[in-house]
Amino acid sequence: MGIIYDETGRVFKLDTPHTSYMMGIADEEGFLGHIYYGKRISSCDVSYLLRIQEPPFVPSKNNGDRISFLDAFPMEYPTHGIGDFREAALRIRTQGGHKACALTYVSHRIYEGKKKLPGLPASFAGEGECETLEIVCRDKSLGLEAVLSYSVFEDSDVTARHVEIRNQGGEKLWLEKVSSMSLDMDNRDFEALTLHGSWARECHRQTGRLGNGFRGIASRRGMSGHQDHPFMALVTEHTTQERGEVYGVQLMYSGSYEILADVSQHNTVRWQAGLESQDFCWELNPGESFCAPEALLIYSDRGLDGMTADFHDFIREHVIRGKYKNRKRPVLINNWEATYFDFNTEKLLSIAKEAAGLGIEMLVMDDGWFGHRSRADSSLGDWYVNEEKLPGGLPRLVEEVNRLGLKFGIWFEPEMISPESELYRKHPDWAIAVPGRTPSMAREQLVLDFSRPEVVEGIWEQMEAVLKSANIEYVKWDMNRPLCDLGSAALPPQRQGELLHRYMLGVYELQERLVTRFPDILLENCASGGGRYDAGMLYYSPQIWCSDDTDAIERLAIQEGTAMLYPLSTMGAHVSDCPNHTIGRTTPFETRGYVALAGTFGYELDVTRIPETDREQIPGQIALYHKYNDLVREGDYYRISSAAQSCGCDCWQVVSKDKKESMVTVIQVLCAPGNRTRILHLKGLDPEKRYRIDGEDTLIKGDSLMYAGLPVPAMKGDFAGKVMHLVAENDKTK
Ligand code: DGJ
């Protein structure tokens, strides 16, 4: 790791263990240009990539054709309106209605460590583990400054970037677009890899070649969303899990965003990630500054496996915080699919009692415990206990649950308000709405205006009172609709474009309060499943409910896509009842357990009513969880095969960091008479070690398992699965 500034060539070079990122200050005016990002190189001598020597289009030599320079130069943080007609990273508007802005280099500083981002989630590092470069660029006539920040980490190939815009001029102006990062590169026939879906179908992979023009993804929903994940990778042709070059970016942000690639007339690609710009407009007065969210950038020359490994380790080390960062999570049972809204103390205790006897460690009471809520049409915002359902309130229920030996967790949807609620009757203006227009509802609810501090405060007071009232050890924070009809009763007209981002700052503020005031509580985020599964949320909660689709087979693609970016320790995964409530399929209970073992593991069913043959498997499943969870949480994850591409054979593997232990899970989606033994090529093992598979006598060397492969006989029955545990010889401790 290291950052240097070569004064002679006016070149910055940022090195991670395996990558280099280079920028240069060009020509007399000091344009900051991107030089190189990729596999680590040892010298700064590649500034020819700026192509500044190429006559005749350099301003100091030929200012008469300045536009030809600006429209081709690989600008590190491009602006709008001065003759670079590609996508700008920053767009502004002045009081006079003008949009031109030109940034050139002013100064820089390099320091150890990394600053926090005001009000926003951001990666962090301990002392001596990270270095940061800040480059100040300025538009001289506006007095506007962009401070470009880059942090590199000793133990990671991820580079964290963000941008702060400062108004140092004498007049207010408006920011209409602020990207967190922009990167100009030659287009090497890149393909864009993205993750897409819908409710209950999150994170399906999609790849397509970049052509001239734009290719982009965005969320305009005020949440990162089920539809397009805040991530994009540019990969060289024929990239596979193991081979090819991959540039990946993900945003540490949970609201509206955009990520795009713009291929120019000269076959260069401009790649950007940042806040969504259609609904955004931020007033910046003299002396004020605006901070854009952080972007996490990665380069891997080891295919997608390399990107995944780097993102996983980075998120585990530099994003996730709190008590559960490196801890096993309690095996929970959630009552949502067991009871929906129809429960009371007695019902919950009957589930808890049965669960305790089977080895389950925590009961989570989901939606329906507050106000007068017995359907989805009321009470959001009224966070007090419904004593008709729960006589004696939470203290009594939680004491009883604890007496049975279980921890207790609770559900909230803090950002929402039901028109049928006391809160709405008291504060109708707290809902996001446009004056004179009836706002569109979703799930019969409206969204609270979290851009207003008094709204955040009002919800916090209620939540704090609930959390203080009993021994609550887990919170599920849900969010079940997108934002529209954007209007805040508290913002003046010229600031309405700030609502979406201010809303997110309010959400982050409330989550920060929660984890600070109740540091022992395990927080799980959720947004109708994985509708807000992003690195921003992981800064507050070490786990996120992955999808409302708990069908084991649907989960294969969902978990494959999710695990491409996020560690398995973050993936909320439960065993549910069949026929599956979302899609109606029946799968073996055993297979449902194997699939859930790839995540945080728990149950989402009425344990008092499932078939006895299923119930009796629960203690064995929980034993597997305890046996494998350290490995799953901390190990290196590898995708071995994907059901979609391998005749229905889905396989993933986890290897301990010391390579002494590995777990291989195989799910056979298709049970066809012609199925034969499959040879699966394992990964990440020590080629020199000999491994024994639990329950078998033979030892197989790591290199054989990886290069020749592991034979896995065809399994009988639809949707069959198995887990194999490999332990290196002489490591008899496991
Ligand atoms: C959506 C969540 O994803 C579910 O798990 C459940 O909590 C419901 N909301 C409750 O309304």
How many β-strand stretches?
A: 39
Number of helices: 14
Globular, elongated, flat, extended or rod-shaped: what is the shape?
globular
- Overall average pLDDT: 96
Write up what this structure looks like.
- This protein is α+β, with helices and mostly antiparallel strands and 734 residues long.
- Helix content is 19%, strand content 30%.
- Strands 6, 7, 8, 9, 11, 12, 14, 15, 19 and 20 form a 10-stranded antiparallel sheet that branches.
- Helix 7 runs parallel beside helix 8 (499-517).
- The longest helix is centred in the last third of the chain and has 19 residues, at 499-517.
- The protein starts with a strand and ends in a 6-residue tail after the last strand.
- The mean pLDDT is 96.
- Bound molecules: (2R,3S,4R,5S)-2-(hydroxymethyl)piperidine-3,4,5-triol.
- Residues 336, 366-367, 411, 478, 480, 526, 528-529, 545, 548 line the site of (2R,3S,4R,5S)-2-(hydroxymethyl)piperidine-3,4,5-triol.
- The site of (2R,3S,4R,5S)-2-(hydroxymethyl)piperidine-3,4,5-triol has 11 residues, from loops.
